[in-house]
Amino acid sequence: MAQVNTSVIKNWLTVPMIIIAIMVTIGIFAPVISPYRTDDYGFSALLTPQVNHILGTNNLGQDIFSLLLAGFRTSIIIALSSAVLSTLIGTFMAAIATVYRGWLEKIIMRLTELLIMVPEIILILVFATFAGPGIQNIVVVIAIFSWARIARIIKARTDLAINSERVQYTIMMKGNLLNIIGKMWRDIYPSISTLFVLQCGKAIMYEAELALIGISDPSVMTWGRLIRQSIDFGVVYHGNAFLWWLLPPVICLVALIASISFIVFNREGKKK
Asked: CA 87, CA 8: separation in Å to the nearest integer?
């Protein structure tokens, strides 16, 4: 029975992995496979799905399928960039607090507690408003206010890893912080990889939320901005336009975040 259950879990796990792989591939090759330019307004407005326009056109005469593909690319870029940055910051902060201890550890831990007390999305919303709508600004803001939870979790791992002989030997030989993290890597990597994957999903969700309230780069198409455009069009629910304009980006957004969450929770379940 245990073998059957394990097989079932593995089979189910392949589904979200395939979804993520397909979306990442589409994001990479979006400019090549996109049938039209996102700034092409030369089509008739509000066309229903047809051969030349798989998802029809919006009220401005843009091909919605092309806009959706552009959203794939932007969302993947935001997810990977902010996840890499926040995971690096969180890991280094945790390592610094563990290695140097004393007043430096207290400052870092108090800072993480302060950031965790306030919901991340509130801080991201406020500072993204002041930083401006650029994609680079959104990536940086998401990373800056997302590293605290990562640091708290990694800190628990580094506190255990620092007691190993290889780490203690490196410290005794006056190794620098990077050397020490390298020796800890075997113990902290599983947590880092899980947090990185989880952060990708959170970053996509945060960007969509910012776009929905109007804080996004108007020159760059994202799923959140595509959803916002359809909602702003007052009669999107008349004539079933929402079926090809609003639902596709919503489905993509939910599918990607759900797939990432499923993989993370499955990994955490295996650890337990």
From this structure: 31
Note whether residue 51 is domain-resident: no
What does DSSP assign to residue 217? -
How would DSSP label each residue in 47-95? Answer: PPS-SS-TT-B-TTS-BHHHHHHHHHHHHHHHHHHHHHHHHHHHHHHHH
Query: In this structure, are residues 93 and 147 in contact, taking their beta carbons and an 8 Å threshold?
Result: yes
Phi, psi angles (nearest 5°) of residue 63? -75, 120
Taking alpha carbons only, the member of 99, 63, 250, 81 closest to residue 188 is 99
First to last CA, the chain: 19
Location of structure tokens 């005469």: 61
Contact 124, 142 (CB under 8 A): yes
| CATH number, position 194 | 1.10.3720.10
> What pTM was estimated for this model as a whole?
0.83
Query: CA-CA distance, 21 to 49, in Å (whole number)?
Result: 26
For residue 152, give its domain range: 2-38+57-271
**Closest of 191, 216, 195 to residue 124, by C-alpha:** 216
Distance from C-alpha of 235 to C-alpha of 115, rounded to nearest angstrom: 41
CA pair distance 116, 170, nearest whole angstrom: 32
| Token output for 176 | 């620098």
Q: What is the pLDDT of residues 226-262, one digit of tens each?
A: 888 888 887 777 777 888 888 999 999 988 888 888 8
Residues in the chain: 272
Q: Which two tokens stand for residue 195?
A: 């947090």
Task: Say how far apart CA 206 and CA 203 lie, in whole Å.
Answer: 5
